[in-house]
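Records of this kind hold a single protein each, on a pair of labelled lines. Below, a sample record shows both lines together.
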Amino acid sequence: MTLTLTDDLEQFVREQTRKGAFASNSEYVRTLIRERYFQEREREERRQSIDAAITKGLSDAESGRVTPVDEVFTRLRSTLAEERARRG
């Protein structure tokens, strides 16, 4: 694979390498790509988790497994009050 950078970007990469954080320009670019790769994987995992939770929630609602909203808010207020009291 060959990468073509603008003069400004190439200079930026060279400066980062000269600062000593990376052994070579290639190492710097590989690090950036690796970081982006892991960010994208994490984002996709979160998206899949959210999709699964939505699907489960819809299925529960269709099956009548629901909690009245007043009860949910009562529990939420209680939990928040306990948390505030614990923090002082």
In short: The chain has a mean pLDDT of 96. The radius of gyration is 25 Å. The CA atoms of residues 54 and 60 lie 10 Å apart.
